[in-house]
Amino acid sequence: MKIDVISIFPEYLAPLQLSLLGKAQSAGLVDISVHDLRSFTHDNHNTVDDTPYGGGAGMVMLPQVWGEALDSVIADGSEIIILTPAGKTFNQKMAEELSDSSQLIFACGRYEGIDDRVRQHYSHSEYAARNIRVREVSIGDYVLGGGEVAAMVMIEAITRLIPGVLGNPDSLAEESHNSEGYLEYPNFTKPQEWRGISVPEILLSGNHAEIAKWRSQQADKRAKDNQ
Ligand code: 6GU
Fold it and tell me: Is the pLDDT of residue 182 over 80?
């Protein structure tokens, strides 16, 4: 999977080269490039934004600059992800869908966002015919200073679903937030007693049917408590 991230703060995305993802890149499973949006400007001040038509607070990112940046990385089958708190909320199901893509392009917006004509332009049937899709995505109901951290969250959730990226593929099957919305049961390891708290007796019983039943009840209780 090719991943391109476009941002005015490319240094902010340095953690993408670390640990799990660094290994996945060395193994040729993912290929992550970070691009500086300002390198697609042509004026002396490297301007990326301007005041909004219709008035109001803040600045809007320029469509010409984003158009050049996106054109430099786009290919047949690209998924363009515009990061904005106004987008559709990211979840495990979306991560699974996106993990099948040949290329993800993350457009990290800052200020009040990107001129909407960028989304409109790449939504055109000419791009759809090339299997290029644009989506606006948020990672939750709170406002961040920009899309950079949101892109990192999405990249971590998506790339770990690519076969071979995760050390132990069994942990994918049993996970705490699979796309059916199942929440995992509490886990315990050694020692059997810690600071006066014992591991639930049932887990020491060796009765696999009873253990499965207990875990399912605990998972339901967690889901209810989190409401
Ligand atoms: Cl994708 N961007 C910003 N700026 N804030 C957010 C977000 C994205 N998702 C949640 N809050």
Answer: no
Nearest atom, ligand 1, residue 90 CA: 9
Q: Give the distance (Å) from ligand 1 centre to CA of residue 162.
A: 24
What confidence tens digit (pLDDT) does each residue in 204-214 have?
Answer: 999 999 999 99
- Using the CB atoms, write b or e for 189-208: b if 16+ within 10 Å: eeeeeeeeeeeeeebeeeee
Phi and psi at 139, nearest 5°, equal: -100, 0
Best of 5, 91, 144 to mutate for ligand 1, by most ligand atoms within 8 A of CB? Answer: 144
pTM of the model: 0.93
Phi, then psi, of 52 in degrees rounded to 5: -75, 135
Helix pair angle (19-26, 148-159), 10° resolution? 60
For 5-28, the pLDDT digits (tens) are 999 999 999 999 877 788 899 899
Counting from 1 in the atom list of ligand 1, the atom nearest the Cα of 142 is: 11
Separation of 20 CA from ligand 1 center, angstroms? 24
How many percent of the chain have pLDDT more than 70?
Answer: 94
Q: What distances in angstroms separate CA 37 from CA 2, 103, 120, one per listed residue?
A: 18, 18, 19
The SS3 call for residue 206 is coil
Report the C-alpha gap between 7 and 144 in whole angstroms.
Answer: 14
